[in-house]
Amino acid sequence: MISVLTDMHLLESALSLRRNRGQSTHELKESWYTQLFERYNITANIFEENLSYYNDDPAVMEKILEEVMANLSRLQSELDSELATKPKSATHD
Q1: pTM of the model
Q2: Domain extents for the chain?
């Protein structure tokens, strides 16, 4: 569940970025969610059932969300580190 939610947050962030750029995301969203569920070999219904199950135990759900946030923070740190080590491309005026 932690991995699914982590990927779901990344997916939603990417969609939000595209919407902010004025791009339509409806079809893309459907496609990406289909791929996400296929990756984890689940359906939207299975995901919803699992989410409901974990939401019934707030302490467990809090721990899951803490792990999701830790994953996202780790990924952000890795990206920041990678970007910091890449040489900046020269711009032409």
Answers
A1: 0.83
A2: 2-75
